[in-house]
Amino acid sequence: MTFTLSSTLASSEEDASHKSGAAEQDELPTVPDRVSLGGMPIYIVDKRLGKGGFGQVCLGRRLQQRKTTPINKPNKVAIKFESTASKGCNNGGPPYEWQVYNKIAGCYGIPKIYAKGTQGGFHIMIMELLGPSVWDVWTTEGQSLPVPYVACVAAEALRALQDLHGRGYVHGDIKPENLLLGAPDTPDATRLYMVDLGLAQRYTSSSTARHLPYHQNPNEFRGTIRYASVHAHLGRIASRRDDLESLAYTLVFLLSGCLPWQGFQGDDKGYQVCKKKMDTSAETLCGSAWPPAFSRFLESVLALKYDEEPMYDAYMALFRPLTGNSASRPLTIFPSPEKTPRKVVGRKRAREDSAEDTAAELGLTPPDSQRKKARTGWAGTQWITVYVKRRPMKQRYHFNVNADRLSTHVEKGYKEGLFITAVASCKGLWAVIMDASAKQKGQSYKLTNGVFMPREWITEKWDEGYYITAVAGSDNFSSLVVMSKGTKWTQQSYKVDSTFPYEWIKKKWRENFHVTSIGTAGSPATKQQWAVVMSRDTEFRHQVVEIDFQYPSEGIHYHWDKGYRITACGATQHQAAVVMSLAKRSNAGDIVQETLRTGDFPATYVKEKWERDLYIDLIAYGRTAIMSFYPYLYYNDAKAAKDWLINVCGFEHNITMEDPDGTIGHAEVKHGFGVVMFATAKPAEGKKSPKDLGGAETASVYVNVKELDSLHDRAKAAGGNITKAPYDTDYGSRDFSMKDPEGRLWFFGTYVPRHECPDKKE
After folding, report:
1. Could you tell me the superkingdom of the organism this chain comes from (predicted)?
2. N or C: which end of the chain has fewer CB within 10 A?
3. Mean pLDDT of the 20-33 span
4. For the residues 191-219, what does the mean pLDDT come to?
């Protein structure tokens, strides 16, 4: 519910805050003409200041005006009305928001509450009257605010959130409309306030003050789509990091006037916005036009763990140098913490010291562990393999198998007493795991061409006593469905949907079904689909789902520690989903399980695992990673380098940002899942091209390509400076090399480095 307590009210646009069950009311009930609560003066109800999902806020004028009034009985107030029959009230009781205000009374940056009570069928709260919202100011100032103003907003909002979080609550809906200034023509006119606690939640236990346990409910969203954190979009229980991520988006919006994910429409708007947020790096979002404090703040916030305490003082120290001196600051900001700067021998402090230098000297700079870039803006697809420790047994794997050869491998395995236990697809080819672990009494499989999940065949096999035990789909919607006899399951159901069907899963959980298989089909160029198979009377007593736009490592590790183990997984080119289960037997938590993520099928790792009695249990291919490392190059003529990378080397353009002098301040091109960043050289700052070093080869770049010879021919035809024609190496790769326009050496080849991302739980 969003109330703007100001004399002017502006609507943000299509975004809206949501509570479970809340809906914007076009016609609100008529409120009383005057309000009289015990111990308070009578207030005449004047014009409406704002409205929300469950109520409205009006201006209140004291019936008997006074030149001087007690601080808690002013002449003008804001009066918030909420019907006692509103869905926001629990069985007619006071609104939830009242409980929050009771717990955080006196919190920094929260307006004063003078009285609460009931009158004429309304729950009424008399509050401190405030001035315009930051949204109003942004609108008045041409939809862009200067850096000092936004830096003041950042510093004050951080201070208020620090105090609010210290009381055990998160706000849940930080945005420009919920950040207000004090009442005009008062000493507090330049102070910043946070309003609307209708979506506030406890993140700590009220009894123990410990952080609430992690949980994800993928279909539950609270907040405003434009500013909500990715974790809120994904349905994770709110924590402190979410308020800070929303604040970061708010700051960028105030500076630039827009965010990259504005404009999405349709039923999947929330999904598209969340995906865009995940695909946008801090550097891209904040750009080079704004001071680095903004991108540094966002980078650090995105790296926070679920229950990690933010470094509020460090973040405030990033922004304070940007607010100007105290006499010229547009807003009043909380005094700096009493810290003694570290002494730097042999250096006088310069006025141009960066915000990072300021924070570092205060001893408040976030540590390197927090500087890990959680979102770089580039996605990666990998193989996910889940291994389980078993008694020594025979296991066989086949990968990169085309449809014509699949039956040969499977039938050979059947003759040797092996059964299919896991399947996956990558780029139209199939991977099959067969072993002797499954106590099957029979097995049948169906490979379809262009048909995902053949319903008639599945139904026929159900009638024969078979149940789906593995499923996979390909880019062209072909599918491989494996059905087996001998399971203890008594009933089965499956659902195919373009989005992960979490609501259906919850419904089936209530009917004693559990997820036993997940498959996906399609590609980014087509409509991707999920297939989720659920069975009744499994060995599981409880399940949780972790779904993300990358491999959900944080949630997996949390649930591992609680005794859950991965029992199903699947991934599209955009998302990865992992189902974790608690088994009915008490010692199930002793199961040793490891996961491995690799760029290629993990054939080189399987034998190592087998030697430790770890066998492949599940396998999937799809979105798992946000790529982490990229070369950053400098060119005297960055525009010519950009043309060379695109026209000669075949890179795809992503983004170019120019400096005021017209040169390239930052640019990015991509090739596959790799990215090259570059900018115009600035020798005076130590950012030099090879030309500035007399052509010295201080570094080179290796690019993995598949069609190497055709790339060579195209580069040669385009005038590329080929230094070595294609040749076969002694490490199994085929390479060629050429120099870019400024003398940097580039290698192109088919070599793929060994790359693993291991996780394990013993």
Report:
1. Eukaryota
2. C
3. 62
4. 94
